[in-house]
Design brief:
alpha/beta, Acyl-CoA Binding Protein, 2-enoyl-CoA Hydratase, Chain A, domain 1, six-stranded mixed β-sheet, 9 strands, binds ligand L24GHEU4, Acyl-CoA-binding_sf, transit peptide, mitochondrion, delta(3)-delta(2)-enoyl-CoA isomerase activity
């Protein structure tokens, strides 16, 4: 069920009762969702650069773009419920000594109704995946694989599902130079994709808006993909001097045939949600106005099925491919390590950072 006005008002009251300060980033998010839910898209002039607090608020609100009021209300209620009911996202799993403490900076993770929901939470950066976010997604997936939920869902907070790799990840060059950076990125990416290959329960993507780069390629490793009709699917690797990852060089041709996969992965053709569904990458598309309600109603029903049986059935569908996928992942990362050191890739990143280029 979509959050009602009453749920929204209850959530506003709950915020006042929070025992722990949720931190500035979450407070800005709450502010922005509140304004969007009550007034719609940001309609006030941008404050001056020295008015830091109001500028931060304005940025947070305006980044929600044209997010409908009822989606904003729902996101507000979800965010407050995650703050009040499960402030320690991995509380169902004992963290090992070598793990980061519970509490995510780039994600909101909730677990209820048999569903663990991992939400990308960098809406001001269109949910681009920073190095920290790669690490946190791996931790959240590990916790979800061990908790009691039947299903695990990935989705985005704000108007984007995810804008792919955070291109500023490549600006933090270590003393060993670009070569060392490419090597460490190779290892991070390989481990990250491995978590999706090995994930033991049904893994569902709820694609709430545009998806770019690695957030698209990974969809081939999900068990179901539900998309809003606002979502688009774009893998602009060639324009970035990069090559396909997330096992897409294997899964995409298998899902849609090699000609359609080439259009996406080599020529960077952006697909609408309808096109992605016709090509088998997306399971079903819903109108944005009913997307959240319809998807969560369906997932809550699926989550009532016996959790162990869901695991067993997923495993029998996926297990034959696992070794192959591991080999593909390794090969893609080797190729990317070389690409990241190429002139094409460096120029593309510099162009984006100097705002000369966008998708
Ligand atoms: C360990 C390494 C592993 C590497 C794995 C490799 C993966 C490959 C990929 O994922 S390739 C895909 C990379 N992504 C992109 O190329 C997207 C780049 N972004 C854009 O083109 C645009 O931002 C947009 C089309 C996604 C959205 O455009 P819009 O005009 O609506 O919004 P802004 O451009 O103003 O964006 C708002 C702020 O968000 C920042 N941002 C958006 N995407 C990214 C990104 N991928 N990386 C870093 N930052 C991003 C953008 O810079 C704005 O920030 P600002 O407000 O501080 O300026």
């Amino acid at each position: 069920m979509r959050a009602s006005q009453k749920d929204f008002e209850d959530a506003m009251n709950q915020v006042k009762l929070l025992k722990k300060d949720p931190g500035n980033e979450v407070k800005l998010k709450l502010y922005a969702l509140y304004k969007q839910a009550t007034e719609g898209p940001c309609n006030v002039p941008k404050p001056g650069v020295f008015d830091l607090v109001n500028k931060a608020k304005w940025d947070a609100w305006s980044t929600l773009g044209n997010l409908p009021k009822d989606s904003a209300r729902q996101n507000y209620v979800d965010l407050v419920s995650s703050l009040s009911s499960s402030p320690e996202p991995s509380s169902q799993v004992e963290p090992r000594a070598d793990e980061k403490p519970a509490g995510y900076e780039t994600l909101v993770v909730t677990s209820e109704d048999g569903i663990t929901k991992i939400m990308f939470n960098r809406p001001t950066k269109k949910n681009a995946i920073s190095t920290r976010m790669y690490e946190e997604i791996m931790l959240a997936l590990k916790a979800a694989s061990e908790d009691k939920s039947a299903l695990t869902v990935l989705t985005g907070i704000g108007d984007y599902y995810c804008s792919g790799n955070d291109l500023t990840n490549f600006t933090d060059i270590p003393p060993g130079g670009v070569e060392e950076k490419a090597k460490s990125s190779h290892i991070l990416l390989r481990n990250f994709v491995q978590c999706f290959i090995d994930f033991p329960k049904p893994l569902i993507a709820v694609v709430n808006g545009p998806a770019v780069g690695i957030s698209v390629t990974l969809l081939g490793l999900f068990d179901a993909v539900y998309a809003s009709d606002r979502a688009t699917f774009h893998t602009p690797f060639s324009a970035l001097g990069q090559s396909p990852e997330g096992c897409s060089s294997y899964t995409f041709p298998k899902i849609m045939g090699s000609a359609k996969a080439t259009e996406m992965l080599v020529f960077g053709k952006k697909l609408t949600a309808g096109e992605a569904c016709a090509q088998g990458l997306v399971t079903e598309v819903f109108p944005d106005s009913t997307f959240q309600r319809e998807v969560w109603t369906r997932l809550k029903a699926y989550a009532k099925l016996p959790a162990n049986t869901l695991r067993v059935s997923k495993n029998i569908i996926r297990s034959r491919e696992r070794e192959k996928l591991r080999a593909v992942n390794a090969e893609e990362c080797i190729t990317l390590e070389e690409r990241w050191q190429s002139e094409d890739c460096m120029n593309a990143i510099m162009n984006f950072l100097s705002r000369k280029a966008k998708l």
